[in-house]
Amino acid sequence: MYAQSLNAKDLTPVAAEDATKLAVFQARIDAEEKIEPNDWMPEQYRRTLIRQISQHAHSEVIGMQPEGNWVTRAPTLKRKAQLIAKIQDEAGHGLYLYSAAETLGVSREELYEQLLSGRAKYSSIFNYATLNYADMGAVGWLVDGAAIMNQIPLCRCSYGPYARAMILICKEESFHQRQGYDIMLAMCRGTPEQRAMAQDALNRFWWPSLMMFGPHDSNSTHSELSLRWKIKRFSNDGLRQKFLDATVPQAHYLGLSIPDPDLRLNGATGHWEHGPIDWDEFARVLAGDGPCNRQRMKHRRQSEADGSWVREAAADYAAKHRRAAERAA
Amino acid sequence: MPQNTGERQSVLLNGLFEEAHMAEPPSPLWEVFIRPRNGLAHRHVGSLHAHDAEMALQAARDVYTRRGETLSIWVVPSSAVIASDPGEKDMMFEPTATKIYRHPTFYEVPDEVGHM
Protein backbone atom coordinates (compact mmCIF):
# COMPACT_ATOMS: atom_id res chain seq x y z
CA MET A 1 0.00 0.00 0.00
CA TYR A 2 1.37 3.39 -0.56
CA ALA A 3 0.67 6.99 -1.24
CA GLN A 4 2.96 8.26 -3.94
CA SER A 5 0.02 8.74 -6.26
CA LEU A 6 -1.59 11.15 -3.84
CA ASN A 7 0.87 13.96 -3.98
CA ALA A 8 -1.45 16.85 -4.61
CA LYS A 9 -0.12 20.34 -4.98
CA ASP A 10 0.61 21.99 -1.61
CA LEU A 11 -0.50 25.58 -1.87
CA THR A 12 0.64 26.79 1.54
CA PRO A 13 3.51 29.22 1.04
CA VAL A 14 6.90 28.21 2.38
CA ALA A 15 9.32 30.82 3.70
CA ALA A 16 12.52 31.12 1.70
CA GLU A 17 15.23 28.83 3.03
CA ASP A 18 18.74 29.85 4.04
CA ALA A 19 20.77 29.19 0.87
CA THR A 20 23.84 27.93 2.75
CA LYS A 21 21.85 25.49 4.88
CA LEU A 22 20.03 24.32 1.78
CA ALA A 23 23.32 23.66 -0.03
CA VAL A 24 24.73 21.70 2.93
CA PHE A 25 21.50 19.71 3.11
CA GLN A 26 21.58 18.90 -0.61
CA ALA A 27 25.24 17.86 -0.33
CA ARG A 28 24.35 15.43 2.45
CA ILE A 29 21.54 13.97 0.32
CA ASP A 30 23.85 13.68 -2.71
CA ALA A 31 26.41 11.87 -0.53
CA GLU A 32 23.67 9.34 0.36
CA GLU A 33 23.68 10.39 4.00
CA LYS A 34 20.45 9.72 5.87
CA ILE A 35 18.59 12.67 7.36
CA GLU A 36 17.56 12.02 10.98
CA PRO A 37 14.74 13.67 12.99
CA ASN A 38 16.79 16.33 14.77
CA ASP A 39 18.82 17.37 11.72
CA TRP A 40 18.08 20.63 9.92
CA MET A 41 15.81 20.11 6.91
CA PRO A 42 13.97 22.45 4.52
CA GLU A 43 10.34 23.07 5.49
CA GLN A 44 9.19 21.70 2.13
CA TYR A 45 11.10 18.44 2.75
CA ARG A 46 9.41 18.08 6.15
CA ARG A 47 5.95 18.80 4.72
CA THR A 48 6.35 16.47 1.77
CA LEU A 49 7.43 13.68 4.09
CA ILE A 50 4.65 14.25 6.61
CA ARG A 51 2.11 14.17 3.80
CA GLN A 52 3.58 11.12 2.08
CA ILE A 53 4.24 9.06 5.22
CA SER A 54 0.89 9.83 6.85
CA GLN A 55 -1.04 9.12 3.66
CA HIS A 56 0.89 5.89 3.35
CA ALA A 57 -0.12 5.09 6.96
CA HIS A 58 -3.78 5.96 6.27
CA SER A 59 -3.65 3.69 3.21
CA GLU A 60 -2.48 0.76 5.34
CA VAL A 61 -5.25 1.37 7.86
CA ILE A 62 -8.05 1.80 5.30
CA GLY A 63 -6.52 -1.09 3.32
CA MET A 64 -7.67 -3.48 6.03
CA GLN A 65 -11.31 -2.96 5.07
CA PRO A 66 -11.51 -4.55 1.59
CA GLU A 67 -9.95 -7.69 3.07
CA GLY A 68 -11.85 -7.58 6.33
CA ASN A 69 -14.90 -8.02 4.12
CA TRP A 70 -13.87 -11.65 3.44
CA VAL A 71 -12.52 -12.93 6.77
CA THR A 72 -15.70 -14.71 7.79
CA ARG A 73 -16.34 -16.03 4.29
CA ALA A 74 -12.88 -17.23 3.25
CA PRO A 75 -13.35 -20.85 2.16
CA THR A 76 -11.15 -22.69 4.67
CA LEU A 77 -9.67 -22.19 8.12
CA LYS A 78 -6.22 -21.92 6.50
CA ARG A 79 -7.41 -19.13 4.17
CA LYS A 80 -9.09 -17.31 7.05
CA ALA A 81 -5.93 -17.49 9.17
CA GLN A 82 -3.79 -16.19 6.28
CA LEU A 83 -6.17 -13.32 5.65
CA ILE A 84 -6.24 -12.34 9.33
CA ALA A 85 -2.42 -12.43 9.46
CA LYS A 86 -2.23 -10.16 6.43
CA ILE A 87 -4.74 -7.70 7.89
CA GLN A 88 -2.83 -7.65 11.18
CA ASP A 89 0.36 -6.86 9.25
CA GLU A 90 -1.39 -3.91 7.64
CA ALA A 91 -2.39 -2.55 11.05
CA GLY A 92 1.25 -2.94 12.08
CA HIS A 93 2.49 -1.20 8.93
CA GLY A 94 0.15 1.71 9.64
CA LEU A 95 1.60 1.98 13.14
CA TYR A 96 5.26 1.87 11.99
CA LEU A 97 4.45 4.65 9.55
CA TYR A 98 2.56 6.86 12.00
CA SER A 99 5.59 6.57 14.31
CA ALA A 100 7.91 7.60 11.48
CA ALA A 101 5.68 10.59 10.67
CA GLU A 102 5.63 11.64 14.32
CA THR A 103 9.40 12.05 14.30
CA LEU A 104 8.78 15.03 11.98
CA GLY A 105 6.95 16.91 14.71
CA VAL A 106 3.32 16.09 13.98
CA SER A 107 1.12 14.30 16.54
CA ARG A 108 -0.67 11.02 15.98
CA GLU A 109 -3.96 12.65 16.98
CA GLU A 110 -3.47 15.34 14.34
CA LEU A 111 -2.89 12.72 11.64
CA TYR A 112 -5.97 10.71 12.66
CA GLU A 113 -7.97 13.90 12.60
CA GLN A 114 -6.81 14.62 9.05
CA LEU A 115 -7.93 11.16 7.94
CA LEU A 116 -11.25 11.14 9.77
CA SER A 117 -12.22 14.64 8.69
CA GLY A 118 -11.50 13.70 5.07
CA ARG A 119 -8.69 16.23 4.63
CA ALA A 120 -5.98 13.61 4.16
CA LYS A 121 -6.08 11.18 1.28
CA TYR A 122 -5.31 7.50 1.13
CA SER A 123 -4.57 5.25 -1.83
CA SER A 124 -7.40 5.29 -4.37
CA ILE A 125 -7.24 1.50 -4.74
CA PHE A 126 -9.01 0.87 -1.42
CA ASN A 127 -12.15 2.57 -2.64
CA TYR A 128 -12.90 -0.36 -4.92
CA ALA A 129 -15.22 -3.07 -3.65
CA THR A 130 -14.06 -6.65 -3.12
CA LEU A 131 -16.99 -8.48 -4.65
CA ASN A 132 -15.89 -12.10 -4.77
CA TYR A 133 -13.37 -14.16 -2.85
CA ALA A 134 -10.97 -14.20 -5.83
CA ASP A 135 -10.56 -10.48 -5.16
CA MET A 136 -8.44 -11.49 -2.15
CA GLY A 137 -6.12 -13.13 -4.67
CA ALA A 138 -6.13 -10.15 -7.04
CA VAL A 139 -5.57 -7.67 -4.20
CA GLY A 140 -2.62 -9.62 -2.83
CA TRP A 141 -1.08 -10.31 -6.22
CA LEU A 142 -1.69 -6.95 -7.95
CA VAL A 143 -2.24 -4.36 -5.23
CA ASP A 144 0.44 -5.63 -2.88
CA GLY A 145 2.62 -6.35 -5.91
CA ALA A 146 2.31 -2.72 -7.02
CA ALA A 147 2.96 -1.59 -3.44
CA ILE A 148 6.18 -3.63 -3.26
CA MET A 149 7.45 -2.08 -6.51
CA ASN A 150 7.12 1.29 -4.86
CA GLN A 151 8.26 0.32 -1.38
CA ILE A 152 11.55 -1.39 -2.19
CA PRO A 153 13.14 1.85 -3.44
CA LEU A 154 11.62 3.66 -0.43
CA CYS A 155 13.86 1.51 1.80
CA ARG A 156 16.63 3.80 0.53
CA CYS A 157 14.67 7.02 1.09
CA SER A 158 16.84 9.83 2.42
CA TYR A 159 14.77 10.19 5.61
CA GLY A 160 16.07 7.61 8.11
CA PRO A 161 12.91 6.76 10.10
CA TYR A 162 10.85 6.32 6.90
CA ALA A 163 13.52 4.15 5.28
CA ARG A 164 13.75 1.96 8.40
CA ALA A 165 9.96 1.56 8.59
CA MET A 166 9.95 0.56 4.91
CA ILE A 167 12.57 -2.14 5.52
CA LEU A 168 10.34 -3.69 8.20
CA ILE A 169 7.32 -3.42 5.89
CA CYS A 170 9.01 -4.91 2.83
CA LYS A 171 10.15 -7.94 4.83
CA GLU A 172 6.50 -8.69 5.59
CA GLU A 173 4.91 -7.53 2.35
CA SER A 174 6.31 -10.27 0.13
CA PHE A 175 4.18 -12.80 2.04
CA HIS A 176 1.15 -10.72 1.06
CA GLN A 177 1.87 -10.87 -2.64
CA ARG A 178 2.68 -14.56 -2.62
CA GLN A 179 -0.45 -15.53 -0.69
CA GLY A 180 -2.45 -13.50 -3.24
CA TYR A 181 -0.87 -15.32 -6.18
CA ASP A 182 -1.43 -18.60 -4.33
CA ILE A 183 -5.17 -17.87 -4.22
CA MET A 184 -5.16 -16.99 -7.95
CA LEU A 185 -3.30 -20.24 -8.75
CA ALA A 186 -5.77 -22.32 -6.75
CA MET A 187 -8.69 -20.61 -8.48
CA CYS A 188 -7.18 -20.98 -11.95
CA ARG A 189 -6.51 -24.68 -11.38
CA GLY A 190 -10.05 -25.16 -10.07
CA THR A 191 -13.51 -25.40 -11.64
CA PRO A 192 -14.62 -23.28 -14.63
CA GLU A 193 -16.63 -21.17 -12.17
CA GLN A 194 -13.50 -20.51 -10.09
CA ARG A 195 -11.51 -19.59 -13.20
CA ALA A 196 -14.27 -17.17 -14.14
CA MET A 197 -14.10 -15.62 -10.66
CA ALA A 198 -10.33 -15.18 -11.00
CA GLN A 199 -10.73 -13.56 -14.42
CA ASP A 200 -13.46 -11.29 -13.09
CA ALA A 201 -11.23 -10.19 -10.20
CA LEU A 202 -8.35 -9.45 -12.60
CA ASN A 203 -10.68 -7.50 -14.89
CA ARG A 204 -11.79 -5.23 -12.07
CA PHE A 205 -8.43 -4.73 -10.33
CA TRP A 206 -6.11 -4.40 -13.34
CA TRP A 207 -6.64 -0.74 -14.22
CA PRO A 208 -6.95 0.52 -10.64
CA SER A 209 -3.64 -1.25 -9.91
CA LEU A 210 -1.91 0.56 -12.79
CA MET A 211 -3.35 3.82 -11.45
CA MET A 212 -1.70 3.18 -8.08
CA PHE A 213 1.57 4.46 -9.51
CA GLY A 214 0.04 7.88 -9.91
CA PRO A 215 -0.20 10.31 -12.84
CA HIS A 216 2.22 10.18 -15.77
CA ASP A 217 5.54 11.88 -15.03
CA SER A 218 4.56 14.78 -17.27
CA ASN A 219 1.61 15.52 -14.94
CA SER A 220 3.13 14.70 -11.57
CA THR A 221 3.34 17.80 -9.38
CA HIS A 222 5.93 16.77 -6.82
CA SER A 223 8.15 14.36 -8.68
CA GLU A 224 11.13 16.53 -9.46
CA LEU A 225 11.76 17.82 -5.95
CA SER A 226 11.06 14.42 -4.40
CA LEU A 227 13.60 12.84 -6.72
CA ARG A 228 16.21 15.51 -6.01
CA TRP A 229 15.74 15.02 -2.26
CA LYS A 230 15.72 11.23 -2.69
CA ILE A 231 12.34 10.90 -1.02
CA LYS A 232 11.53 8.79 -4.03
CA ARG A 233 13.99 7.06 -6.29
CA PHE A 234 12.04 6.26 -9.43
CA SER A 235 9.42 8.15 -11.37
CA ASN A 236 5.77 7.04 -11.47
CA ASP A 237 6.06 5.81 -15.06
CA GLY A 238 9.33 4.00 -14.33
CA LEU A 239 7.74 2.05 -11.50
CA ARG A 240 4.59 1.35 -13.52
CA GLN A 241 6.79 -0.12 -16.27
CA LYS A 242 8.58 -2.40 -13.82
CA PHE A 243 5.23 -3.58 -12.48
CA LEU A 244 3.88 -4.23 -15.97
CA ASP A 245 6.94 -6.21 -17.05
CA ALA A 246 6.80 -8.33 -13.90
CA THR A 247 3.05 -8.91 -13.86
CA VAL A 248 2.05 -9.65 -17.46
CA PRO A 249 3.94 -12.97 -17.60
CA GLN A 250 2.46 -13.93 -14.20
CA ALA A 251 -1.05 -13.39 -15.61
CA HIS A 252 -0.17 -15.49 -18.66
CA TYR A 253 1.07 -18.30 -16.42
CA LEU A 254 -2.32 -18.29 -14.72
CA GLY A 255 -3.94 -18.54 -18.15
CA LEU A 256 -5.82 -15.30 -17.57
CA SER A 257 -6.20 -12.50 -20.08
CA ILE A 258 -5.42 -8.90 -19.21
CA PRO A 259 -8.33 -6.53 -19.91
CA ASP A 260 -6.35 -4.22 -22.20
CA PRO A 261 -6.81 -4.66 -25.98
CA ASP A 262 -3.78 -2.39 -26.62
CA LEU A 263 -1.38 -4.36 -24.42
CA ARG A 264 1.65 -5.44 -26.46
CA LEU A 265 5.24 -6.48 -26.09
CA ASN A 266 7.56 -3.98 -27.76
CA GLY A 267 10.09 -6.18 -29.51
CA ALA A 268 12.65 -3.40 -29.76
CA THR A 269 12.70 -2.47 -26.06
CA GLY A 270 11.60 -5.80 -24.58
CA HIS A 271 9.04 -3.93 -22.45
CA TRP A 272 5.27 -4.41 -22.23
CA GLU A 273 3.21 -1.39 -23.23
CA HIS A 274 -0.30 -0.67 -21.94
CA GLY A 275 -3.22 1.20 -23.49
CA PRO A 276 -4.51 4.58 -22.24
CA ILE A 277 -5.37 4.84 -18.53
CA ASP A 278 -8.69 6.43 -17.58
CA TRP A 279 -7.34 9.34 -15.54
CA ASP A 280 -10.84 10.77 -15.11
CA GLU A 281 -11.74 7.72 -13.09
CA PHE A 282 -8.56 8.13 -11.03
CA ALA A 283 -9.36 11.78 -10.29
CA ARG A 284 -12.95 10.92 -9.41
CA VAL A 285 -12.01 8.16 -6.96
CA LEU A 286 -9.30 10.31 -5.37
CA ALA A 287 -11.73 13.20 -4.98
CA GLY A 288 -14.06 10.98 -2.94
CA ASP A 289 -16.43 9.65 -5.57
CA GLY A 290 -15.23 6.08 -6.01
CA PRO A 291 -17.39 3.00 -5.47
CA CYS A 292 -16.69 2.73 -1.72
CA ASN A 293 -15.23 6.05 -0.46
CA ARG A 294 -18.17 6.92 1.77
CA GLN A 295 -18.45 3.44 3.18
CA ARG A 296 -14.72 3.29 3.97
CA MET A 297 -14.77 6.61 5.83
CA LYS A 298 -18.01 5.84 7.65
CA HIS A 299 -16.62 2.53 8.81
CA ARG A 300 -13.34 4.10 9.96
CA ARG A 301 -15.13 6.82 11.93
CA GLN A 302 -17.49 4.29 13.49
CA SER A 303 -14.55 2.14 14.49
CA GLU A 304 -12.75 5.13 16.03
CA ALA A 305 -15.89 6.05 17.98
CA ASP A 306 -16.52 2.46 19.09
CA GLY A 307 -12.98 2.24 20.47
CA SER A 308 -13.11 5.47 22.43
CA TRP A 309 -14.35 3.88 25.69
CA VAL A 310 -11.42 1.44 25.57
CA ARG A 311 -8.90 4.24 25.20
CA GLU A 312 -10.65 6.22 27.92
CA ALA A 313 -10.62 3.25 30.30
CA ALA A 314 -6.92 2.62 29.61
CA ALA A 315 -6.07 6.26 30.29
CA ASP A 316 -8.09 6.28 33.56
CA TYR A 317 -6.55 3.01 34.70
CA ALA A 318 -3.05 4.33 34.05
CA ALA A 319 -3.88 7.58 35.88
CA LYS A 320 -5.28 5.67 38.86
CA HIS A 321 -2.09 3.62 39.15
CA ARG A 322 0.05 6.71 38.86
CA ARG A 323 -1.86 8.32 41.72
CA ALA A 324 -1.55 5.17 43.87
CA ALA A 325 2.19 5.07 43.20
CA GLU A 326 2.51 8.73 44.16
CA ARG A 327 0.62 8.17 47.43
CA ALA A 328 2.79 5.19 48.32
CA ALA A 329 5.97 7.15 47.68
CA MET B 1 -10.20 21.36 12.70
CA PRO B 2 -11.91 21.03 9.36
CA GLN B 3 -11.60 24.24 7.44
CA ASN B 4 -14.58 24.68 5.21
CA THR B 5 -18.27 24.21 5.77
CA GLY B 6 -18.60 21.18 3.54
CA GLU B 7 -15.96 19.25 5.40
CA ARG B 8 -17.21 20.44 8.74
CA GLN B 9 -20.69 19.28 7.89
CA SER B 10 -19.55 15.82 6.95
CA VAL B 11 -17.74 15.55 10.29
CA LEU B 12 -20.83 16.63 12.18
CA LEU B 13 -23.05 14.23 10.28
CA ASN B 14 -20.71 11.49 11.32
CA GLY B 15 -20.59 13.34 14.64
CA LEU B 16 -19.40 10.38 16.65
CA PHE B 17 -15.79 10.95 16.01
CA GLU B 18 -15.41 14.59 16.86
CA GLU B 19 -16.78 14.32 20.36
CA ALA B 20 -14.78 11.21 21.16
CA HIS B 21 -11.65 12.64 19.65
CA MET B 22 -11.47 16.05 21.21
CA ALA B 23 -11.96 14.81 24.78
CA GLU B 24 -9.09 12.32 24.63
CA PRO B 25 -5.68 13.17 26.00
CA PRO B 26 -2.84 11.95 23.77
CA SER B 27 -1.29 8.76 25.11
CA PRO B 28 2.44 8.73 26.02
CA LEU B 29 5.06 7.69 23.48
CA TRP B 30 7.38 4.72 24.14
CA GLU B 31 10.59 3.64 22.43
CA VAL B 32 10.83 -0.07 21.65
CA PHE B 33 14.02 -2.16 21.79
CA ILE B 34 14.18 -5.85 20.91
CA ARG B 35 16.81 -8.57 21.38
CA PRO B 36 16.52 -10.92 18.42
CA ARG B 37 18.56 -13.68 20.10
CA ASN B 38 20.90 -14.22 23.02
CA GLY B 39 24.35 -12.79 22.49
CA LEU B 40 23.01 -9.68 20.75
CA ALA B 41 22.23 -6.35 22.37
CA HIS B 42 18.71 -4.93 22.45
CA ARG B 43 18.26 -2.79 19.37
CA HIS B 44 15.95 0.17 18.84
CA VAL B 45 13.19 -0.75 16.36
CA GLY B 46 10.69 2.09 16.62
CA SER B 47 8.13 3.64 18.88
CA LEU B 48 4.47 3.34 19.83
CA HIS B 49 1.75 4.95 21.92
CA ALA B 50 0.34 3.34 25.07
CA HIS B 51 -1.17 4.53 28.33
CA ASP B 52 1.00 2.41 30.63
CA ALA B 53 4.07 0.19 30.62
CA GLU B 54 2.14 -3.07 30.52
CA MET B 55 0.10 -2.04 27.50
CA ALA B 56 3.24 -0.68 25.84
CA LEU B 57 4.90 -4.08 26.24
CA GLN B 58 1.90 -5.92 24.78
CA ALA B 59 1.57 -3.49 21.90
CA ALA B 60 5.32 -3.79 21.20
CA ARG B 61 4.91 -7.55 20.93
CA ASP B 62 2.00 -7.19 18.50
CA VAL B 63 3.52 -4.43 16.40
CA TYR B 64 7.21 -5.33 16.25
CA THR B 65 7.51 -9.12 16.73
CA ARG B 66 4.91 -10.79 14.52
CA ARG B 67 7.48 -13.08 12.90
CA GLY B 68 8.96 -14.63 16.04
CA GLU B 69 12.25 -12.81 15.74
CA THR B 70 12.50 -11.84 19.40
CA LEU B 71 13.62 -13.15 22.79
CA SER B 72 13.15 -9.99 24.82
CA ILE B 73 11.56 -6.54 24.57
CA TRP B 74 12.36 -3.31 26.39
CA VAL B 75 9.97 -0.36 26.32
CA VAL B 76 11.18 3.01 27.58
CA PRO B 77 9.14 6.23 27.88
CA SER B 78 10.40 8.46 25.05
CA SER B 79 10.49 11.37 27.49
CA ALA B 80 13.15 9.49 29.50
CA VAL B 81 15.65 9.48 26.64
CA ILE B 82 18.37 12.11 27.00
CA ALA B 83 19.94 12.77 23.60
CA SER B 84 23.00 14.65 22.42
CA ASP B 85 22.36 17.58 20.11
CA PRO B 86 23.25 16.80 16.47
CA GLY B 87 23.96 20.51 16.02
CA GLU B 88 26.81 20.19 18.51
CA LYS B 89 28.24 16.97 17.19
CA ASP B 90 31.52 18.55 16.07
CA MET B 91 32.31 19.82 19.54
CA MET B 92 30.94 16.72 21.23
CA PHE B 93 32.91 14.18 19.23
CA GLU B 94 35.96 16.18 18.19
CA PRO B 95 38.26 14.46 20.75
CA THR B 96 37.89 11.10 18.99
CA ALA B 97 38.78 12.51 15.58
CA THR B 98 42.12 14.01 16.60
CA LYS B 99 43.49 11.12 18.67
CA ILE B 100 44.74 8.86 15.94
CA TYR B 101 47.06 7.14 18.44
CA ARG B 102 43.95 5.41 19.86
CA HIS B 103 43.90 3.17 16.79
CA PRO B 104 46.11 0.08 16.46
CA THR B 105 47.13 1.10 12.95
CA PHE B 106 48.98 4.12 14.42
CA TYR B 107 51.71 1.77 15.68
CA GLU B 108 54.14 0.08 13.34
CA VAL B 109 55.26 -3.43 14.12
CA PRO B 110 58.37 -4.67 12.27
CA ASP B 111 57.58 -7.38 9.69
CA GLU B 112 60.00 -9.75 11.48
CA VAL B 113 57.77 -9.70 14.57
CA GLY B 114 54.86 -11.10 12.60
CA HIS B 115 51.18 -10.71 13.39
CA MET B 116 50.28 -8.78 16.53
Written account of the structure:
The complex is a heterodimer of chains A (329) and B (116). With 329 residues, chain A is mostly helical. Chain A is built from 13 helices and 2 strands; from the N terminus they run ααααααααααββααα. In chain A, helix 2 packs antiparallel against helix 4, helix 6 packs antiparallel against helix 7 and helix 6 (134-154) packs antiparallel against helix 10. The termini of chain A are far apart. Chain B is an alpha+beta fold and 116 residues long. Chain B has one domain (5-113): Roll (Ubiquitin-like (UB roll)). Chain B is built from 4 helices and 3 strands, in the order H-H-E-E-H-E-H. Chains A and B meet through helix 4, helix 5, helix 7, helix 12 and helix 13 of A and helix 1, helix 2, strand 2 and helix 3 of B.
List the defining traits of the structure above:
heterodimer, A: 329 residues, mainly alpha, 2 strands, disordered N terminus, B: 116 residues, alpha+beta, Ubiquitin-like (UB roll), three-stranded antiparallel sheet, 4 helices, 17% strand
Number of DSSP helices of chain A? 13
Say how many strands of chain B there are: 3
Report the CATH architecture of chain B.
Roll
Oligomer: heterodimer
Decide which structural class fits the backbone of chain B.
alpha+beta
DSSP, total strands of chain A: 2
**Topology as H/E string of chain B?**
HHEEHEH
Strand content of chain B is 15-25%
Write down the CATH class of chain B.
Alpha Beta
Secondary-structure-derived class of chain A: mainly alpha
DSSP helix fraction of chain B: 25-40%
Question: What is the mean pLDDT of chain A?
Answer: 92
**Might you state the CATH topology name of chain B?**
Ubiquitin-like (UB roll)
Radius of gyration of chain B: 25 Å
**Biggest beta sheet attributes of chain B:** 3 strands, antiparallel
Distance from first to last alpha carbon of chain B: 68 Å
Lateral arrangement of strands in the main beta sheet of chain B: 2-1-3
Model regions low in confidence, pLDDT < 50 over at least 5 residues of chain B: 1-21
End-to-end distance of chain A: 49 Å
Shape of chain B: elongated
Instruction: Return the average pLDDT of chain B rounded to an integer.
Output: 80
